[in-house]
Amino acid sequence: MKELILIGLLCVIAVTTIYQIITSPFHYPYFEYEFNVSGKRQPKFEDLIDQYINNRGIGAFEEHYRKVQQWKYDSQQKLDKSILKNLRQRQYYECLDDEHMFQFILTRQQTRYKQVNYKKTSYKVTVQDKIYSCDYQGLINRYAMLRDIGFLCTLNEYHSKNQRKLMTKELRKRIMIRDNYTCQMCGKYMPDEVGLHIDHIVPVSKGGKTIESNLQVLCSKCNGRKSNNL
Description:
Shape: elongated
Low-confidence stretches: none
Strand content: 15-25%
Structural class: alpha+beta
Largest sheet: 3 strands, mixed
Helix content: 40-55%
Strand order of the largest sheet: 1-2-3
Oligomer: single chain
Order of helices and strands: HEHHHEEHHHEEH
Distance between the termini: 98 Å
């Protein structure tokens, strides 16, 4: 009986040892961030990334990139000291995934129901919609393009052919508050918004964009006088 127990223990030890040998000790450190897209029918991943960069910059991305470089250095140190160098080296290179270093998860809030004591109650759950991934250089390139336009909007909005469609109520309100409801040509004050226009400084017909730096408050008279002139 004791011999059977001993054999069983030896088998467990052997299996555990083999498992530890063949299991890779390397786990690639992905960057993960969740975007809550509840209420959005077809959110564009590029726009979500642009909004993130415009609002937060790329400090978190740069920090994670340095973290990955440190992980690679530490892993190489382990490889140099490993007695299973060939196996570990293969496992290490199989683990590398720089092309998908940054993982962006789109989530939605869904309403579900449960019945307790014949009473139906609702509750919210977060469900995963889609996952997008990219490498570090792709984010750096996008940051550079957004910097060139002053981080004023997304790249899709900036290059949109229908610039007038981008004039939202929220954007109009921001321009009115910024310019204090005052015509930027004659100085007329219009707190009741009567006769108040939001004008493209560089006209859309001449390549002007619907971004805050290219918008201003004008009164009806000045707006008519300016027309499509710069």
